[in-house]
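Backbones bend. Shown next:

***
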Amino acid sequence: MQRSDPGALDRVFTRFVPLLLVALLNGCSSAGYYGQLAVGQWELLQARRPLTKVMADPATSEPLRARLAYALQARTFATRQLKLPDNRSYTTYADLGRPYVVWNVFATPELSLQPVTHCFPIAGCVAYRGYYRQGAARGAAALMRQQHLDVYVGGVETYSTLGWFDDPILSSMMGWGEERLATLIFHELAHQRVYVQDDTAFNESFASFVEQQGTRQWRLSRGLGATGEDHGPQREQFIRLVLATRARLQAIYAAPTDDETKRLAKRAEFERLRRDYRLLRDGPWRGDTRYDAWVYGPMNNAKLLPFGLYDQWVPAFSALFRQAEGDWERFYERVGQLASLPIAARTAALQGLMPGASAR
Protein backbone atom coordinates (compact mmCIF):
# COMPACT_ATOMS: atom_id res chain seq x y z
CA MET A 1 0.00 0.00 0.00
CA GLN A 2 1.30 3.46 -0.86
CA ARG A 3 1.99 5.69 2.15
CA SER A 4 2.31 8.99 0.28
CA ASP A 5 -1.05 10.28 1.53
CA PRO A 6 -1.36 9.73 5.30
CA GLY A 7 -4.68 11.52 5.32
CA ALA A 8 -6.13 9.01 2.87
CA LEU A 9 -4.81 6.17 4.98
CA ASP A 10 -6.43 7.76 8.01
CA ARG A 11 -9.74 7.83 6.19
CA VAL A 12 -9.45 4.16 5.27
CA PHE A 13 -8.74 3.29 8.89
CA THR A 14 -11.54 5.47 10.20
CA ARG A 15 -14.14 3.83 7.96
CA PHE A 16 -13.12 0.23 7.67
CA VAL A 17 -10.24 -1.11 9.76
CA PRO A 18 -11.93 -1.41 13.17
CA LEU A 19 -14.73 -3.50 11.71
CA LEU A 20 -12.35 -5.61 9.62
CA LEU A 21 -10.07 -6.36 12.54
CA VAL A 22 -12.90 -7.44 14.78
CA ALA A 23 -14.41 -9.57 12.02
CA LEU A 24 -11.11 -11.24 11.09
CA LEU A 25 -10.19 -11.96 14.67
CA ASN A 26 -13.63 -13.19 15.71
CA GLY A 27 -13.19 -16.48 17.50
CA CYS A 28 -9.47 -15.92 18.09
CA SER A 29 -8.21 -15.70 21.69
CA SER A 30 -6.68 -12.29 20.85
CA ALA A 31 -9.89 -10.86 19.41
CA GLY A 32 -10.72 -8.82 22.50
CA TYR A 33 -7.25 -7.33 22.76
CA TYR A 34 -6.86 -6.43 19.08
CA GLY A 35 -10.42 -5.19 18.99
CA GLN A 36 -9.79 -2.67 21.77
CA LEU A 37 -6.63 -1.51 19.98
CA ALA A 38 -8.57 -0.87 16.77
CA VAL A 39 -11.46 0.88 18.51
CA GLY A 40 -9.11 2.94 20.69
CA GLN A 41 -7.11 4.17 17.70
CA TRP A 42 -10.30 4.87 15.76
CA GLU A 43 -11.69 6.98 18.64
CA LEU A 44 -8.41 8.88 18.85
CA LEU A 45 -8.43 9.69 15.13
CA GLN A 46 -12.08 10.75 15.28
CA ALA A 47 -11.30 13.19 18.10
CA ARG A 48 -8.66 15.16 16.16
CA ARG A 49 -9.10 18.82 15.28
CA PRO A 50 -6.55 21.05 13.48
CA LEU A 51 -4.52 23.07 15.95
CA THR A 52 -5.34 26.28 14.12
CA LYS A 53 -9.08 25.67 14.54
CA VAL A 54 -8.76 24.80 18.22
CA MET A 55 -6.69 27.92 18.82
CA ALA A 56 -9.21 30.09 16.94
CA ASP A 57 -12.19 28.62 18.79
CA PRO A 58 -13.58 31.17 21.34
CA ALA A 59 -14.40 28.26 23.64
CA THR A 60 -10.71 27.31 23.94
CA SER A 61 -9.21 28.44 27.22
CA GLU A 62 -6.27 30.84 27.13
CA PRO A 63 -3.90 28.38 28.86
CA LEU A 64 -4.70 25.69 26.28
CA ARG A 65 -4.38 28.15 23.40
CA ALA A 66 -0.94 29.24 24.67
CA ARG A 67 0.16 25.63 25.17
CA LEU A 68 -0.85 24.67 21.63
CA ALA A 69 0.96 27.69 20.18
CA TYR A 70 4.07 26.54 22.04
CA ALA A 71 3.60 23.02 20.66
CA LEU A 72 3.47 24.36 17.10
CA GLN A 73 6.75 26.18 17.67
CA ALA A 74 8.36 23.01 19.01
CA ARG A 75 6.97 21.04 16.06
CA THR A 76 8.53 23.49 13.60
CA PHE A 77 11.84 23.35 15.48
CA ALA A 78 11.78 19.54 15.32
CA THR A 79 11.65 19.61 11.53
CA ARG A 80 13.96 22.51 10.81
CA GLN A 81 16.65 22.00 13.44
CA LEU A 82 16.45 18.36 14.52
CA LYS A 83 15.71 17.09 10.99
CA LEU A 84 12.76 15.04 12.19
CA PRO A 85 9.94 14.08 9.77
CA ASP A 86 8.03 16.95 8.15
CA ASN A 87 4.46 15.65 8.05
CA ARG A 88 1.08 16.31 9.63
CA SER A 89 1.79 14.55 12.90
CA TYR A 90 1.32 16.85 15.91
CA THR A 91 -0.53 19.50 13.90
CA THR A 92 -3.91 18.42 15.29
CA TYR A 93 -5.33 18.17 18.83
CA ALA A 94 -7.52 15.51 20.46
CA ASP A 95 -9.25 15.89 23.80
CA LEU A 96 -9.40 12.40 25.34
CA GLY A 97 -11.09 13.20 28.62
CA ARG A 98 -8.66 10.95 30.55
CA PRO A 99 -5.14 11.40 31.99
CA TYR A 100 -3.39 8.90 29.69
CA VAL A 101 -3.95 7.73 26.14
CA VAL A 102 -2.97 4.14 26.99
CA TRP A 103 -1.80 2.12 29.96
CA ASN A 104 1.16 -0.18 29.28
CA VAL A 105 1.48 -3.47 31.11
CA PHE A 106 5.04 -4.71 31.68
CA ALA A 107 5.83 -8.19 33.02
CA THR A 108 8.88 -10.27 33.92
CA PRO A 109 9.44 -13.62 35.64
CA GLU A 110 9.80 -13.37 39.41
CA LEU A 111 13.57 -13.91 39.30
CA SER A 112 14.51 -12.33 35.99
CA LEU A 113 14.66 -8.93 34.32
CA GLN A 114 13.87 -10.45 30.93
CA PRO A 115 10.60 -8.86 29.76
CA VAL A 116 7.62 -10.86 28.60
CA THR A 117 7.34 -9.74 24.97
CA HIS A 118 4.32 -9.34 22.69
CA CYS A 119 4.48 -9.28 18.89
CA PHE A 120 2.41 -7.14 16.53
CA PRO A 121 2.23 -6.86 12.73
CA ILE A 122 3.72 -3.34 12.39
CA ALA A 123 5.62 -2.65 15.62
CA GLY A 124 7.20 -6.10 15.87
CA CYS A 125 7.89 -7.57 19.31
CA VAL A 126 7.79 -5.13 22.22
CA ALA A 127 8.18 -5.48 25.97
CA TYR A 128 4.68 -4.38 26.94
CA ARG A 129 1.00 -4.52 26.03
CA GLY A 130 -1.04 -1.34 25.72
CA TYR A 131 -4.67 -0.82 26.73
CA TYR A 132 -6.89 2.18 26.07
CA ARG A 133 -8.82 1.63 29.31
CA GLN A 134 -7.16 1.55 32.71
CA GLY A 135 -9.55 -1.13 33.93
CA ALA A 136 -8.58 -3.41 31.04
CA ALA A 137 -4.89 -2.90 31.83
CA ARG A 138 -5.45 -3.74 35.48
CA GLY A 139 -7.43 -6.82 34.52
CA ALA A 140 -4.63 -8.03 32.25
CA ALA A 141 -2.10 -7.34 34.99
CA ALA A 142 -4.11 -9.40 37.48
CA LEU A 143 -4.14 -12.37 35.12
CA MET A 144 -0.37 -12.09 34.69
CA ARG A 145 0.14 -12.01 38.46
CA GLN A 146 -1.77 -15.28 38.68
CA GLN A 147 1.01 -16.72 36.51
CA HIS A 148 3.49 -15.63 39.23
CA LEU A 149 4.92 -12.85 37.08
CA ASP A 150 6.15 -9.49 38.34
CA VAL A 151 3.83 -6.89 36.76
CA TYR A 152 3.80 -3.11 36.46
CA VAL A 153 1.14 -0.85 34.91
CA GLY A 154 2.24 2.59 33.72
CA GLY A 155 0.21 5.35 32.08
CA VAL A 156 1.46 6.80 28.77
CA GLU A 157 0.74 10.36 27.63
CA THR A 158 1.30 9.71 23.91
CA TYR A 159 2.70 7.22 21.43
CA SER A 160 3.81 7.08 17.81
CA THR A 161 2.09 5.13 15.02
CA LEU A 162 5.47 5.28 13.21
CA GLY A 163 4.13 7.52 10.47
CA TRP A 164 1.20 5.31 9.46
CA PHE A 165 -1.28 7.90 10.78
CA ASP A 166 -1.17 11.62 11.53
CA ASP A 167 -0.53 11.46 15.27
CA PRO A 168 -2.23 14.28 17.21
CA ILE A 169 -1.20 16.29 20.23
CA LEU A 170 -3.30 14.82 23.04
CA SER A 171 -4.96 16.36 26.05
CA SER A 172 -3.02 13.75 28.08
CA MET A 173 0.15 15.67 27.13
CA MET A 174 -1.16 18.90 28.66
CA GLY A 175 -0.58 17.97 32.31
CA TRP A 176 3.17 18.53 32.07
CA GLY A 177 5.10 21.77 31.76
CA GLU A 178 5.78 23.34 28.38
CA GLU A 179 9.24 21.83 28.08
CA ARG A 180 7.93 18.32 28.68
CA LEU A 181 5.42 18.86 25.89
CA ALA A 182 8.27 19.66 23.49
CA THR A 183 10.28 16.62 24.60
CA LEU A 184 7.32 14.32 23.97
CA ILE A 185 7.00 15.65 20.41
CA PHE A 186 10.73 15.15 19.80
CA HIS A 187 10.65 11.62 21.25
CA GLU A 188 7.67 10.41 19.24
CA LEU A 189 8.86 11.95 15.97
CA ALA A 190 12.20 10.19 16.48
CA HIS A 191 10.34 6.88 16.28
CA GLN A 192 9.10 7.94 12.86
CA ARG A 193 12.68 8.67 11.75
CA VAL A 194 14.23 5.31 12.79
CA TYR A 195 12.47 2.24 14.12
CA VAL A 196 13.65 -1.38 14.28
CA GLN A 197 11.28 -4.26 14.79
CA ASP A 198 11.89 -6.47 17.82
CA ASP A 199 14.42 -4.21 19.59
CA THR A 200 12.60 -2.06 22.14
CA ALA A 201 15.77 -1.01 23.97
CA PHE A 202 17.34 0.31 20.74
CA ASN A 203 14.19 2.18 19.69
CA GLU A 204 13.45 3.76 23.04
CA SER A 205 17.05 4.65 23.86
CA PHE A 206 17.43 6.29 20.44
CA ALA A 207 14.23 8.30 20.90
CA SER A 208 15.26 9.23 24.45
CA PHE A 209 18.59 10.55 23.19
CA VAL A 210 16.89 12.61 20.46
CA GLU A 211 14.47 13.92 23.08
CA GLN A 212 17.26 14.92 25.47
CA GLN A 213 19.66 16.43 22.92
CA GLY A 214 16.78 18.07 21.08
CA THR A 215 15.59 19.65 24.31
CA ARG A 216 19.04 21.07 25.00
CA GLN A 217 19.08 22.71 21.58
CA TRP A 218 15.47 23.86 21.93
CA ARG A 219 16.29 25.58 25.23
CA LEU A 220 19.40 27.25 23.81
CA SER A 221 17.41 28.51 20.81
CA ARG A 222 15.09 30.25 23.27
CA GLY A 223 17.88 31.88 25.26
CA LEU A 224 17.70 29.44 28.17
CA GLY A 225 20.34 27.23 29.77
CA ALA A 226 21.11 23.93 28.06
CA THR A 227 19.67 21.88 30.92
CA GLY A 228 16.12 22.23 32.20
CA GLU A 229 14.38 20.68 35.15
CA ASP A 230 13.22 17.61 33.24
CA HIS A 231 16.74 16.66 32.13
CA GLY A 232 18.84 18.05 34.96
CA PRO A 233 21.37 16.28 37.21
CA GLN A 234 18.68 14.92 39.52
CA ARG A 235 17.01 12.97 36.72
CA GLU A 236 20.36 11.60 35.55
CA GLN A 237 21.35 10.61 39.09
CA PHE A 238 18.02 8.90 39.65
CA ILE A 239 18.34 6.92 36.41
CA ARG A 240 21.86 5.84 37.36
CA LEU A 241 20.53 4.73 40.75
CA VAL A 242 17.84 2.56 39.17
CA LEU A 243 20.17 1.14 36.52
CA ALA A 244 22.70 0.21 39.22
CA THR A 245 19.94 -1.67 41.03
CA ARG A 246 19.08 -3.48 37.79
CA ALA A 247 22.71 -4.49 37.31
CA ARG A 248 22.97 -5.92 40.83
CA LEU A 249 19.70 -7.80 40.39
CA GLN A 250 20.95 -9.26 37.11
CA ALA A 251 23.96 -10.65 38.95
CA ILE A 252 21.78 -12.05 41.71
CA TYR A 253 19.45 -13.84 39.28
CA ALA A 254 22.39 -15.28 37.33
CA ALA A 255 24.13 -16.62 40.45
CA PRO A 256 24.15 -20.40 41.14
CA THR A 257 22.02 -20.10 44.29
CA ASP A 258 18.57 -21.40 45.19
CA ASP A 259 15.40 -19.41 44.54
CA GLU A 260 14.74 -18.52 48.17
CA THR A 261 18.20 -17.01 48.51
CA LYS A 262 17.55 -14.97 45.35
CA ARG A 263 14.19 -13.77 46.72
CA LEU A 264 15.83 -12.54 49.92
CA ALA A 265 18.57 -10.77 47.95
CA LYS A 266 15.95 -9.23 45.67
CA ARG A 267 14.08 -7.71 48.62
CA ALA A 268 17.35 -6.43 50.05
CA GLU A 269 18.21 -4.71 46.76
CA PHE A 270 14.90 -2.87 46.68
CA GLU A 271 15.50 -1.69 50.25
CA ARG A 272 18.97 -0.57 49.23
CA LEU A 273 17.46 1.37 46.33
CA ARG A 274 15.14 3.20 48.73
CA ARG A 275 17.99 3.84 51.18
CA ASP A 276 20.32 5.21 48.50
CA TYR A 277 17.47 7.33 47.15
CA ARG A 278 16.89 8.89 50.59
CA LEU A 279 20.57 9.83 50.78
CA LEU A 280 20.26 11.69 47.48
CA ARG A 281 16.91 13.28 48.27
CA ASP A 282 17.84 14.50 51.74
CA GLY A 283 21.42 15.39 50.79
CA PRO A 284 22.43 17.01 47.50
CA TRP A 285 18.82 17.29 46.29
CA ARG A 286 17.85 19.33 49.38
CA GLY A 287 14.59 17.54 50.04
CA ASP A 288 13.27 17.35 46.47
CA THR A 289 10.56 14.67 46.64
CA ARG A 290 9.64 14.38 42.95
CA TYR A 291 10.45 10.64 42.85
CA ASP A 292 8.99 9.67 46.24
CA ALA A 293 5.78 8.18 44.87
CA TRP A 294 7.66 5.92 42.48
CA VAL A 295 10.31 4.82 44.98
CA TYR A 296 7.95 4.13 47.87
CA GLY A 297 5.26 2.41 45.81
CA PRO A 298 5.20 -1.39 45.37
CA MET A 299 8.50 -2.51 43.82
CA ASN A 300 9.29 -5.42 41.52
CA ASN A 301 11.35 -6.35 38.45
CA ALA A 302 8.75 -5.16 35.96
CA LYS A 303 8.76 -1.68 37.46
CA LEU A 304 12.43 -1.35 36.52
CA LEU A 305 11.89 -2.39 32.90
CA PRO A 306 11.15 1.06 31.40
CA PHE A 307 14.49 2.34 32.73
CA GLY A 308 16.44 -0.41 31.06
CA LEU A 309 14.50 0.01 27.83
CA TYR A 310 14.40 3.81 27.62
CA ASP A 311 17.87 4.61 28.94
CA GLN A 312 20.13 1.60 28.35
CA TRP A 313 21.84 2.85 25.16
CA VAL A 314 21.47 6.63 25.57
CA PRO A 315 25.23 7.06 26.28
CA ALA A 316 26.01 5.07 23.13
CA PHE A 317 23.82 7.32 20.98
CA SER A 318 25.42 10.34 22.64
CA ALA A 319 28.84 9.05 21.58
CA LEU A 320 27.53 8.47 18.05
CA PHE A 321 26.22 12.05 17.93
CA ARG A 322 29.64 13.36 18.94
CA GLN A 323 31.25 11.25 16.22
CA ALA A 324 28.85 12.88 13.75
CA GLU A 325 30.06 16.26 15.07
CA GLY A 326 26.53 17.24 16.02
CA ASP A 327 25.22 16.94 12.48
CA TRP A 328 21.74 15.45 12.76
CA GLU A 329 21.59 14.04 9.23
CA ARG A 330 24.96 12.32 9.63
CA PHE A 331 23.84 11.03 13.01
CA TYR A 332 20.64 9.54 11.60
CA GLU A 333 22.62 7.96 8.78
CA ARG A 334 24.84 6.20 11.32
CA VAL A 335 21.86 5.17 13.42
CA GLY A 336 20.33 3.73 10.26
CA GLN A 337 23.49 1.72 9.69
CA LEU A 338 23.20 0.28 13.19
CA ALA A 339 19.53 -0.45 12.61
CA SER A 340 20.36 -2.51 9.53
CA LEU A 341 22.60 -4.88 11.49
CA PRO A 342 21.43 -8.21 12.94
CA ILE A 343 20.47 -7.71 16.57
CA ALA A 344 23.59 -9.42 18.00
CA ALA A 345 25.91 -7.27 15.88
CA ARG A 346 23.87 -4.15 16.66
CA THR A 347 24.07 -4.82 20.40
CA ALA A 348 27.83 -5.38 20.17
CA ALA A 349 28.25 -2.11 18.25
CA LEU A 350 26.24 -0.20 20.83
CA GLN A 351 28.23 -1.77 23.63
CA GLY A 352 31.42 -0.61 21.93
CA LEU A 353 30.10 2.97 21.98
CA MET A 354 29.36 2.93 25.71
CA PRO A 355 31.59 4.94 28.09
CA GLY A 356 34.67 2.97 29.12
CA ALA A 357 34.20 0.37 26.37
CA SER A 358 37.72 0.89 25.02
CA ALA A 359 39.18 0.24 28.45
CA ARG A 360 37.48 -3.12 28.86
